[in-house]
Design brief:
membrane; 17 helices; Plug_dom; five-stranded mixed sheet; mainly beta
Length: 1004
Amino acid sequence: MDKKVQSIKWLYLTVFLLPVLAMAQEKETKKEKETKIDEVVLVGYTKVSKKDVTNSVASVKADAIKDMPSTNAAEAIQGRMAGVQVSLSEGSPGADVDIVIRGGNSITGSNAPLYIVDGVQMDNALSILSPKEIESIEVLKDASSTNIYGARGANGVVLITTKGGRKRAKTSINYNGFLGVRKIQNTIDVLDPYQYVLYQYEVYNKGGVQTDIDAFKARYGTYEELSKYKDVKKRDWQDEVFGREAFNFTHNLAITGGSDNSSFSLSLNNVQEDGIMIGSGFKRNMANFKYDYDLSKKVSMSLNARYSRQTIFGAGTSSTGSQGTNRLRNAVRYQPFEGGSNVNVDDFDPLFANETNLVNPVLLANNEIKENGRNDLLLNGTLEYKISKDFTFRSVIGYLQRDEFINQFSGTVTSVARQNNDQPVVFLSKAQTRRITNTNTLNYKKTFGNHKLDLLVGQEIVKTDGESTAMTIKWFPKSITAEEAFANIQSASPPAGLVQDAPRAGRNPDRLASFFGRANYIFKNKYILTASMRADGSSVFGPGNRWGYFPAASAAWKITEENFLKDSQTISELKLRLGYGLSGNNRIGSFLYDTFFITSSDYGYAFGTNVTPGATTGNILANKNVTWEKATSKNIGLDFGLFKGRVYGAIDLYQTDTKDLLLLAQIPKDRGYEYQYQNSGSTTNKGIEFSIGTAIINKDNFTWKMDANISSNKNTIKSLGNSASPSAFSYLYPSGWQNSLNDFLVQVGKPVGTFWGYVTAGRYEVSDFDYNPTTQVYTLKAGIPSSASAANGAKAIQPGDLKLADLNGDGIIDNKDMTDLGNAQPKFYGGFSQTFRYRNWDMSMMFNFSVGNKVYNANKIEYSTQYLYRDNNMLAEVADRWRWFDDAGQKVNDPTALAALNANTTGWTPPAGAYFLHSYAIEDGSFLRLNNVTIGYSLGKDFTKQLGLSNFRLYFTMNNVFTITGYSGYDPEANTRRNPLTPGVDYAAYPRSRFILSGVDITF
């Protein structure tokens, strides 16, 4: 408790008191009068002065991220907003970015927020935006603000406004470009060559089987010859696969200007980025054009056209599939030296691959070719008609088209090819999504003395269509290249009597019709009341269940407008906010209320000499009664400003209760199905958010600003439905990295993402056994529970084996001893930034942190378990394992000698059973990361003017500078399972890299 108190005091001093004390000693200047509270933010189809906002809204403006070079807009906002968790799933080029607002509300559905870009709905919008073109990002966090967007607003709404031109402004050209290089930050320590062969000697010789003993000598030599491996050059496969210097070239060009009645902007972005892994990389080209024109004093219009084309290269290291798709394993477990088999280590040895389940990682990386492409087109137009002084009509029409493709080639050394007659296999998929949106609003604004009224009514339609196809093509000639295979799929020739798998196709139409309204009333500029209502009709639900209704209300009291604070020299803003609202979620596939059939050769049947593809309904039972998931949010907040706005911030307390969860529920299999979407169960999220910013020093020649935020969220499952079955209270769920491993618990009263496994209790010592000197057999003493069935593949327990805790005390260690091992939720998280400017120099630092979250290090389980295969390398800590052989290579059986041999070892013998979760793999994922440091220098205005420039800035940046953490894996933020039920699993994640770059920002 004392350490926690000290930590809280330190945080309080650092974030609040020290900046305030520094400011108190500074004399007031004209710049001090500038405040942050006069900002305008976008809230639900209209802009509102931040002083009049009644909801919980987080905002990031262009000034905050303009000096932070990044290819990913999500990275630029990481750690900047209270209650908004932004994390990269892994370090691969174009890796998915997770954005979760106030914890996850859904269990099996998506927790991603709704994105609105320039008034048009998009999915994962930050991936197609350059940070340089963003004008502002507003995040609506509570239902009193998100409900105006109704459908999909339950997980928060991210409103993004891109930059445009300015009227009556001369044409300006800005170029911002940088060159950088990425390097792997850390690696997983493994056994060196000598440690490796000593371990293999033990594995081969422990059982005393002569054929195994002879096999070891043939592969590695006699025990007396093993000392030569001390001088064998180690091959660091992780360095060979991930160790290259990966260059990045990024160019941003923006042209803006305007006349008396129009403005325009054109922005172009080009990114060419290598990945640190062989064969991986990322390319992107984007163009965005915006044009605003006043047709008359009453009518104005704007047009926006955006196109993005990006491709991710490389198969990466991980997949949401099982252990068989783990490519990282080969770089960690492949033998750490030349030789060791009858084939050169740089050639493919099929016998060695079958014996070890490993392939040379360099050969594998060059044999798996993958191109994952995505093209996005966004067109939208806005017409605004000022009917009168008080009435404004606005119409927005948008068209969004996304084309995606995957071309993947699996060469002869891959497991996919080896399972298909050692012939290459190609996977091709294409998908297109088209969305048309139309939003029409009528806005009425009027001031009557002390009364200010703002009314909005609107109507919106969203029409989404799409098709997808996928095919797996086998039996290509062994000599074919990836390029030849992609271009000539007809060259694949099935053997007689066999056919190619039938292509898979799907359609996913979605229709949404909405009506909404909002009223905002302000009295005496002190008291604000906002009420809104939205009705959504969604086609994903069956007839009779399509409409959802989402009301909300919020209020604010500007306390500083009261007489007792109006003339305060210390408190410049104090506003109390209250909010309550209901929002909805319809994120399930289309037609789940009806039964459809799918075809595949997996369900085929023999007809003559051929296999005819069959049809099946799949494993999800239709449900005609499924309807909207609803989230009710309550929020109380306090905005404050001190010292004429030089200290500003907010504190919010909230509770979000989600009911009628769109749950993919497990059902009895007697009807031929495993799952069914149901409105079943509820969750709650409770939390507190605190943000603060200060202009610590604001002199003409020197400024020092700081922004910080910290948040805490507690998620709890309240119900899993009203079914009388046991699963109504709890059920187990697999993360999927190992087949049939139920390593997550879904239970009422616990948070989503609870790890489920055994408690590690060290190892069995000699004292735990009775020893028979005649038979030389160790037998567990009576009363000592055996971990044999759980950890050792039912083999008899021996000294040095892994011991698990017998939690229920029944003398048997089985699944009844599995327990809650923690969860991935942090106790609190946040970020803080420091910005300095001294004359022409500028410097910024951006930190983010997380405290109290657990990480499930599945790599640690796999790389310290023997299981089925020999000749696999292990984690370096396995060198400290229990020893059975002395320094002369002789097996020790005598209890006294065996205990003495292991007096200085602490590890256990790698388990011989299947992979399973125990607390050894659950690690503290707390971290403090310096995400970004940027140092810039701008040429003086007099000098730039002589050059015909308005700005010239050089900068140097380092991203992912350092991470302070106790986590033993690549990165404590890794999350490779991509499922709300299984967060915090680090399995085969692509390593995170450090990015060092320099660039120039020039404005003509």
